[in-house]
Amino acid sequence: MEHANWLSTSAVYLGAAVLAVPIARLLGLGAIVGYLAAGIAIGPWGLRLVTETTTILHVAEFGVVLMLFLVGLELEPRRLWALRRPIFGGGSLQLLGSAALMLGVGVAAGLPWPVALVAGLGLAMSSTAIGLGVLAERNLGATTSGQHVLSVALLQDIAAIPVLALVPLLAAAPLGAAHEGGGWWGAAKALGVVAGIVFGGRLLLRPALRWIARSDTPEIFTAAALLLVVATATLMQAVGLSMALGAFLAGVLLAESEYRRALETDLEPFKGLLLGLFFIAVGMGIDFAVIAAHPGWMAAVVAGFLLLKAAVLWLLAHLARLPLAERPVFVILLAQGGEFGFVVFQAAQQAGVIDGATSSFLVAAVAISMLATPLLLPLADRWWLPRLAARAPRTEPPAETRLSEPQAAPVIIAGFGRFGQVVGRLLNASGLQATVLEHDAEQVEAVRRFGWPVFYGDASRLDLLRMAGAAEARVFVLAIDDVEQSVAVAALVREHFPQLTVVARARNVTHYLKLRALGITLIERETLDASLMSGRHVLEQLGWQPHAARNQALRFRQHTVALIEQMRAHVGDEQELIALAKQGRQQLEAMWAQERAEQAAARHRRGWHDDSTH
Amino acid sequence: MPRILVIAAHPHLGDSRVTRALIDAARAAAAEGADIAVRELYALYPDYLIDTAAEQAALREAALLVWLHPIHWYGMPPLMKLWLDEVFAFGWAYGPGGTALAGRDLWLVCSTGGSAESYQPAGHNRHAFEAFLPPYAQAAALVGLRFLPPQVLHGAHQADGAAVTAFAQGFVARLRSWPEASAWPELAGLPPCPGCTVPGGERPAEAPGSVTLAATTRRVEA
Fold first, then answer.
1. How many CB atoms lie within 10 A of CB A246?
2. Which residues of chain B does A605 touch, with a Cβ-Cβ cutoff of 8 Å?
3. Cα atoms found within 13 Å of the Cα of residue A71, Cβ hemisphere only
4. Going by C-beta distance under 8 Å and a sequence separation of 6 or more, which residues neighbour residue A265?
5. CA–CA distance, B222 with B220 (Å, rounded to integer)
6. pTM: predicted TM-score of the whole model, two decimal places
7. What span, in angstroms and rounded, lies between the C-alpha atoms of A607 and A614?
8. B89 CB near a chain A CB, below 8 Å?
9. ipTM for the complex?
10. pLDDT surpassing 60 at residue A608
11. Are A138 and A326 in contact (CB under 8 A)?
């Protein structure tokens, strides 16, 4: 019976996830909303398919643990050391600042200070699972803001220990007895375990993994990887430390090992599913009775704590000089409550600092904020980002990268990504000067590290173009990869600086035709030549003489460029364009087929192609 | 298409004085209405991908073909040789049905770095300049072009501005007056096309007989 129950529960979980996640994705909401919705649907307030939510939450927390292990794997100790400032500086500012603000508001609202403090500390925690999940989903992990989200999350993991130690002390009744068991002995144990993990990780893990890998049994390696994480987490939990922190440490210690990729690939699927389970559990755990009882209060508390945290985070983003475009994600991801909040409230309720109703209320508030996060993100993308983007050029770049003095190079390169850099390098190596404009602050920083005098700037701004010397320069290299921006800049340059020869890069035929319509003639499609070069290699590999392959590729180039020129007259008429493209292809095929036939015939005659001379 | 077609080839036109002066002068004349077209090969085909059809079309109407280039390694620059290889095609310029150029004139206008004295048996080039011309003359003969006496500026590196200008002016003056006997007295003494008649077995032929031909030429090479 129990066995059947376990099976049916699994079926419910998996079924809910499999249904809800694709639907959420389809609605553009991201997987996390899907999991949360699935949890609500099958939970006690939905279809009542599953009721024992707390046990599930405990199992599911393991998803967060696995995630932190994997994050640790990505971070070598060296990089972690580099992050120490954002972790301890930014992280503690977020946690303490938010908690202090909320404590103040709580006390002002008439709550007893221990209750306000516990609520503040609990709500100040953010969801590592959602934060890192969204970063991964959006591929932002490597960005500055991604690193800061991780730093704050890590600090919260570390801070969970003192916070949980503090909670019993806040109880009105002297509950010291429960705590005393810890004391020095507890601290020593904790230190011992961390030291054990660090030294064990350094000295023992790699030989052990090598030994296991040599057994050549893939599933045993996977089992070992899981065991490693479970064992670390268990050890940490045994001494009252954060499981996730332990797993993270283990990950960092293995980041330099040769097994990093193998561990990653093995654990990745477990992480995804367990995280999903975690979110389902959170969804199930939302107590709708509490929400229904005080809907107004709930809305006020959720909105209030989100706004307070957002204010602190905005300040932090400002201090850390995060790129403007990344700030909304940073703020939203960390403003929400998180899984540590649940733990804090649970502990506080056990210690008698807050009562059951308050705890349920706060847990529901955190859960709602977690549900709101993935919903707020698309809103931010649509409303907040465009507004920031409009402001970005004036506020963002470090002073030295801003174009403040008129430039006088004969060439201006707009866009210094993959394409513009090659042009720039060629010019530079040829002893020519170019003024380079790039609108991505990070890219500016990156190429400046390589010694390029690149200026931060949006080439679609007339004043900036003038400053760059557009009125005197001779050539304007348009290497901006965004098609719309590229066309806009091209139009601006054509209108205001007609003496400039524009040499443009086109992403595709449509882009080419748009630039052509502006009267620009020197346009290269970005992948044409590289593709032709590959085509040449193929011909050579199939036995063509290298020189013949080269000629064929160059002739094909001529043909395809001529074909686009022909298409130019029919822009907008898709039918005609398709017909032209087809016709062009057929013409070339026919022409070359005829040539091949002639060559075959010519093998019987002898002209210069033979080894003969006259 | 103009009746005078100048095919110019200089791989480093930016460093050139003589060839550039000649090209500029010819273009200026064309701009003033002279029946001249200049095709500068290194500008047209920087990738060495010659548009054979376009070149042959340009040649179709030309009565006087001018080759304008500096002498490099006792011959023409490489792109010009490629042009010759590809444009003077079998079956078009020579071989069966290859009569497209027959009856036209070919005039070589060139410059040499070496002085006139260097092109002497006693000079460092050890041969008279004419000794390097048979490939030109014979190529012309094979396709039925009448090879006019070349116009050469020796010692181009040392030539002063006035000499270069005078050379260019003489060049254009002769282009403008071609083929008037007053400016081209030597034409009177030239046979229509010496050596244009090639015995049947020596020319590339259609398939059936070609086996022997190929065999012969290979033997000659070896």
1. 27
2. 90-91, 95-96, 204-207, 210
3. 29
4. none
5. 6
6. 0.52
7. 9
8. yes
9. 0.74
10. no
11. no
